[in-house]
Amino acid sequence: MELRLLPFPLTKAVPLAISRGTTAAVEHLLVEVEQDGLTGIGETGGFDTGHREFTTAAIAAELQALAPRLRDLAPQPLQALEPLLASLSPPARCGLDLALHDWWGKRLGVPLHRLWGLDPQLGVPTSVTLGLGSVEAVLARLQRWWTQLPATRIKLKLGSPEGLDHDRALVEAVAEALDRQQQIGGPAAELQVDANGGWDLEGARAMVGWLADHQVALVEQPLPPIEDPEADSAAFAALELDCPIALVADESCWTLADVVRLAPYVDGVNIKLLKSGGLAEALLMAQAARRLGLEVMLGCYSDSALLNGAAAQLLPLVRWPDLDSHLNLVDDPFAGPTLEADRLHPGVSPGLGVALTTELAGNATARADRSGGEGPWPLPGA
Are 123 and 249 in the same domain? Predict the structure, then answer.
């Protein structure tokens, strides 16, 4: 098979601020595998969780180095490729994993959720995200979401550098806005909060009871992730007994092993394809989490409709979808999951159910000219 890589830009309509900083635009990679006249596509890109960081340039270099070893191999069976995939970082593995799954689904002529026996009618509304900012800016972002879709699930970013008082002010303002919206005939809305590791244990203990009093449904990653698994689990264990609302691990949960170790201390896990290394691991994580009595959140970074469309194939297994990043892009080159009100449905075309709608080659050439040749460009097939 032939492996091709192509960089493309993604620009947010509204920049997103979290406890670790603000993102307005990113560069991601289109990953293509081709054999027998069929092309499978995947997406990957850099991200930073506070304790682990990956750059798009480094990911591209990994895949570029692997390309010669793939030429004498076929996209299927996937099991034969597992040793090569295991050698990659999670985001590099994700891009190739998605392309291989897409090729497989296209070869068989069916979307992945059908191959896995999942019922797409079981999907529930996705949350939409409110980044950190002033009270006025956060409420304006909420109103903008309401002009786009019903937004019956709101995820509010906390962990503000301005401290817990500012976090509380944001929660109170958003909760009041949700109540007002319902009073004038809008739908009831669920409020979730995500601290992105922005609190210490003392602050988290002070916040969780207060959040419960304000009818917040869940708190995601209140504590900073810790590289050592035992120390990370111990941090969640120290908070778990004092947490009266659902406690969800995100930056601390990467693989099936993390799901198992965190299961005694959390109520749910946030699975993201770039963290897990793609759909193969994400499917195992979702199934295992459900068997262990955990709820599944399905999240994203600054991802296009390609990555979110791939994740959407898992939506029947998910209680808390959080796949809104592509809804906040001005230059998404892909058409992915369909949106009905605020409920995403996985694509019904074969494979990932995602199509490229814009020519990327010109964009890549222009960006390479502007960059002065920095990074690992040109890439195979670019």
Answer: yes
**Is 381 inside any structural domain?**
no
For residue 53 the two structure tokens come to 């960081």
- What are the two backbone dihedrals, phi and then psi, of residue 309, each rounded to the nearest 5 degrees? -70, -35
What DSSP element (H or E) covers 320?
strand 320-321
State which amino acid sits at residue 247.
L
The reply to whether 53 falls in a domain is yes
- Domain holding 195, by residue range, is 114-355
CATH number of domain containing 100? 3.30.390.10
Q: How far, in Å, CA of 102 to CA of 105, rounded?
A: 5
Same-domain pairing of 79 and 121 = no
Token reading at 115: 């191959």
Q: What are phi and psi of 29, to 5 degrees?
A: -120, 130
Count of domains for the chain = 2
Using DSSP bridges, classify how beta strands 21-35 and 38-45 pair: parallel, antiparallel or unpaired.
Answer: antiparallel
5 residue type, one letter: L
Phi and psi dihedrals of 229, rounded to 5? -60, -40
pLDDT in tens, 184-193: 999 999 999 9
HSE at residue 353, side-chain half, CA atoms within 13 A, is 23
CATH of the domain at 272: 3.20.20.120
Q: What percent of the chain is modeled with pLDDT above 90?
A: 92
Quick one: tokens of 360?
Answer: 């990327």
End-to-end CA distance of the chain: 16
pLDDT at residue 95 greater than cutoff 50: yes
Residues 169 and 253 in one domain: yes
Q: Give the 3-state secondary structure of residue 94.
A: helix
Q: Do residues 248 and 270 lie in contact, with contact meaning Cβ atoms separated by under 8 Å?
A: yes
Residue 178, domain member (yes or no): yes
Cα distance between residue 15 and residue 23, in whole Å: 6
DSSP string, 139-190: HHHHHHHHHHS---EEEEE---TT-HHHHHHHHHHHHHHHHHHHHTTPPP-E
Whether the pLDDT of residue 374 is over 80: the answer is no
Structure token pair of residue 94: 């994700």
- Pair 363, 351 in one domain: no
Asked if the structure places residue 376 within a domain, the reply is no
